[in-house]
Amino acid sequence: MGNKRLLPLIAGLAVVIAACSPTVILASDEATSVEAGESIESTTETERAPAGSPLLPEENPPRGAEREFSTDFSKHTIPYSEILSGGPPKDGIPAIDNPRFISISEADAWLGDLEPVIVFHEQDDVRIYPLQILIWHEIVNDIVGGRPVTITFCPLCNTAIGFDATVNGQQLDFGTTGRLRFSNLLMYDRQTETWWQQATGEAVIGELTGTQLTFLPVPTIGWSEAKDTYPEAQVLSRETGFSRAYGNNPYVGYDNINSSPFLFDGPITPGQLPPMARVMTVDLNGEAVAYPNDVLEQVRVVNDTVGGLDLVVLWQPGLASVLDTGSLADGRDVGTNAVFERELEGLMLTFAADGDRIIDEQTGSIWNVLGRAVSGELEGSQLTPVVKVDHFWFSWAAFKPETRIYQP
Question: What is the three-class DSSP state of 236?
Fold first, then answer.
């Protein structure tokens, strides 16, 4: 990344850090970051250990970590040399632990129509989490419909992921470690101080190492779509207990496809796609597939089989980039997507784009991007959602290099 392209991003990150902690962040064209006075050792490809591998030999924990954490650093499945300081210390980017919620009409006063929001519902309890808040906090610990959940967003990877927060019968809540691996958020649970990789949901350091969090379907859609679909939903309030420039983007221009990942020290990104290409990813039964956003924009509907499951990928315009302009509401339209099982009550459906509409070829019913039939023979029917995660290509490929890239 050239210096001209780095300057706005560094300025934006300085705003984040100034709001969170006095820790210094440095950057270079090689996109590495260190704490003041700290050196980072490089790691060769042969030294890297994939998540889920056996425990590695004992080595010194990341610098400063033992002062901040009571983690059992003798247990880990990743080399400590892969971990970089993101700048802020433990909890320097503060999670929201006691979220407050407001009505759709109240939130409508400060949310733009295309502004991205995360939606999660458990039975009749629907919660909406605006990214203009999550971009400053990265984690919300919540209970929805009686289920403890953790809603997360890592700006450097563009990954919005929801997790079931109950592990082995124990309810966990999470905070930020202030560290990154492959530019991705390393979070920790406050009960055992185990460290977790946000992109994979796996415990990689500490008592629960090797444990896997359960992913939840949490589509990111535009505010207009969300408020029309879920008029009775509760929306995360800006009254978080912290003073932040909600609505402003501290990572201006970060998702420029011609730029390079920031704070990334990881495997060489496979050359099939530019590192900053937007991809929607599905990982099922040992098969990983990435659907490039520019391809989805062209075809709009994909019927595919992943890990033995027949599914449909849907795309439509109407979602602003959270990492583009200074105002989240004014980001360019990158479109929204979702994935569903194609089988509905024993009927295998095949979907197609019909102009701006999504139809199934078996009944001619019309569907929206949220997998609901809005007219026709199947009106009111709901497809079963499949967990998907949006990434930048460099981020997904770092964790899943064997990925199949979808092409029509």
Answer: strand
Residue pointed to by tokens 């930048």: 392
- List, in sequence order, every residue forming a beta bridge with 113; answer none if it has no partner: none
**Residue 21: inside a domain, yes or no?**
no
Give which of 150, 201, 143, 197 is closest to 174, Cα–Cα.
150
Report the alpha-carbon angle 393-217-362, nearest 5. Answer: 95
Please tell me the least confidently modeled range out of 39-48, 79-88, 260-269: 39-48
**Rounded to whole angstroms, how far apart are CA atoms 317 and 222?**
9
Residue burial 4-43, b: 16+ Cβ < 10 Å; e: rest: ebbeebeebbeebbebbbebebebeeebbbbbeeeebeeb
Position 220 in a domain? no
Q: Are 249 and 327 in contact (CB under 8 A)?
A: yes
**Which residue has better confidence, 283 or 44?**
283
Q: What CA–CA distance (Å, rounded) separates 93 from 136?
A: 7
Domain range for residue 334?
A: 278-405
What one-character DSSP code corresponds to residue 248?
B
- Whether the pTM exceeds 0.85: the reply is yes
User: Which residues are 188's β-sheet partners?
Assistant: 175, 195
Q: Which of 274, 276, 279 is nearest to 291 (CA)?
A: 279
Q: How far apart are CA 320 and CA 55, in angstroms?
A: 41
Counted domains in the chain: 1
Could you tell me the CATH number of the domain that includes residue 367? 2.102.10
Residue at token pair 């890592």:
154
If one counts every other C-beta atom within 10 angstroms of the C-beta of residue 371, the result is 22
User: CA geometry: angle at 165 spanning 163 and 167, to 5°?
Assistant: 115
